[in-house]
Design goal:
This protein has about 425 residues and is an alpha/beta fold. The protein has 13 helices and 15 strands. The protein folds into 3 domains: about 90 residues, GTPase HflX, N-terminal domain (Rossmann fold, 3-Layer(aba) Sandwich); about 170 residues, P-loop containing nucleotide triphosphate hydrolases (Rossmann fold, 3-Layer(aba) Sandwich); about 70 residues, Alpha-Beta Plaits. The protein has a 7-stranded mixed sheet with strand order 6-7-5-8-9-11-10, sandwiched between helices. The relative contact order is 0.08.
Length: about 425
């Protein structure tokens, strides 16, 4: 039995399982937020206590009958499960309830489809949807599982189902090729930024932790930010000037969630690579969330999956406006004194300067910020520093020496000085960020 997919705003019954293994357990409050973000009108929330799922329905036959009655009593359009269903379970439940059934992955995919704005984002969502659909295609074509026949319908020896599976595979391959091209374009842009010595910083974190609000506050941008799960899908990059450091590129990225479907991680790999190639990650955390430790662990798990778990990280505890008696401040490592955590309120704009200060300290550890005194014979070295774009101010002293105020990576400066045959005594003033 196949049911057409409709727009949002449908009446939905939510089904949540309790008693499962802790690793498989989901958060009921987060489930409600996911349904709201998808545009569903929740008419009933049913909790099922079951430690062992059944192969046919996931839940027991008694609960299936009870839910069938509720579907008709509430005139529900669909039933959403807070767990992944196998294709056969989804098919069996739709037949039993006589309405559409959606699992957790399908719900998240629907939200992603609504949020995608750019061509790249739409391609990534379509790829994830097609891969999810490919295992459930049989449901839509049970009446066509036979050879085509009749006048004008005698086909190439394929069933309709086989034809559609083949077309799906072709479309999936086309999307992958386009996304590979996007990935290569992103890598080219990153190489350009690296050549210009512009550090990149990515905002990562659990969905709805306030990444986009922080991004807008720091960069004075107008990126869409809302109290919804997965409000941001398409990555946004902005140039930001930091005191004592200079320009950086700040990236706002898609939020993570507990048990984020692997298909989505794969589909959004081109986007997520923006994080894995950053010089620093800002892990935005909802300081008001009771389960924030679980959310932190989930973000770390996804970062591990995309190969970004070894990158330097600064934790940004957001939403101080919802806490009592906590002021914006920087927490430092007891041994090294390096910033490890910043407490802010992105919505109220409190503590934003502390984020800039902490980022400048962490990125400026291998940076020389100061004044170089060069004899006139080193005009070539002066020209090379200008080519790198690291000179802030150019002047001369009374003896005719060149005075250059620079901000340059220490390794690059040492390389240039070595080629010019100069010793570090050419420094007359320096400020190392600490």
């Amino acid at each position: 039995m196949f049911f057409e997919r409709h727009e949002g705003g449908e009446r939905a019954i939510l089904v949540h399982l309790e008693g499962l293994h802790p690793e498989a357990r989901e958060d009921p409050q987060e489930f409600l937020e996911l349904a709201r973000s998808a545009g569903a009108e929740t008419v009933a929330f049913v909790t099922v206590n079951r430690s062992q799922p059944t192969a046919r329905y996931l839940i027991g036959t008694g609960k299936v009958e009870e839910l069938h009655d509720q579907v008709h009593a509430h005139a529900a359009d669909l039933v959403i499960f807070n767990h992944d269903l196998t294709p056969s379970q989804e098919r069996n439940l739709e037949k039993a309830f006589e309405c559409r059934v959606l699992d957790r992955t399908g719900l998240i995919l629907d939200i992603f489809a609504q949020r995608a704005r750019t061509h790249e984002g739409k391609l990534q969502v379509e790829l994830a949807q097609l891969e999810h659909m490919s295992t459930r295609l049989v449901r839509g074509w049970t009446h066509l599982e036979r050879q085509k026949g009749g006048i004008g319908l005698r086909g190439p020896g394929e069933t309709q189902l086989e034809t559609d599976r083949r077309l799906l595979r072709i479309r999936i391959r086309q999307i992958r090729q386009r996304l590979d091209k996007v990935r290569s374009q992103r890598e080219q842009a990153r190489r350009g930024r690296r050549r210009a010595e512009i550090p990149s910083v990515s905002l990562v974190g659990y969905t709805n932790a306030g990444k986009s609000t922080l991004f807008n506050s720091l960069t004075e941008s107008g990126v869409y930010a809302a109290n919804l799960l997965f409000a941001t899908l398409d990555p946004t990059l902005r140039r930001l000037e930091l005191p004592d450091l200079g320009p950086i590129v700040l990236a706002d990225t898609v939020g993570f969630i507990r048990h984020l479907p692997h298909k989505l991680v794969e589909a959004f790999r081109a986007t997520l690579e923006e994080s894995s190639n950053s010089d620093l990650l800002l892990h935005v955390i909802d300081a008001h969330e009771d389960d924030r430790q679980l959310q932190i662990e989930q973000v770390e798990a996804v970062l591990h999956e995309i190969g970004a778990d070894e990158l330097p990280m600064l934790e940004v505890y957001n939403k101080l406006d919802l806490l009592d008696g906590v002021e914006p401040h920087i927490q430092r490592d007891d041994e090294t004194g390096r910033p490890i955590r910043v407490w802010v309120s992105a919505r109220e704009g409190r503590g934003l300067e502390l984020v800039g200060q902490a980022v400048a300290e962490l990125l400026g550890e291998d940076l020389f910020v100061g004044v170089l005194r060069l004899p006139q014979r080193h005009a070539r070295l002066r020209a090379q520093l200008f080519e790198l774009g690291v000179v802030r101010q150019d002047d001369h002293d009374d003896e005719g020496n060149i005075l250059l105020s620079v901000r340059v990576p220490r390794a690059e400066l040492n390389r240039l000085l070595s080629r010019a045959g100069e010793e570090p005594e050419v420094f007359i003033q320096q400020h190392v960020l600490q």
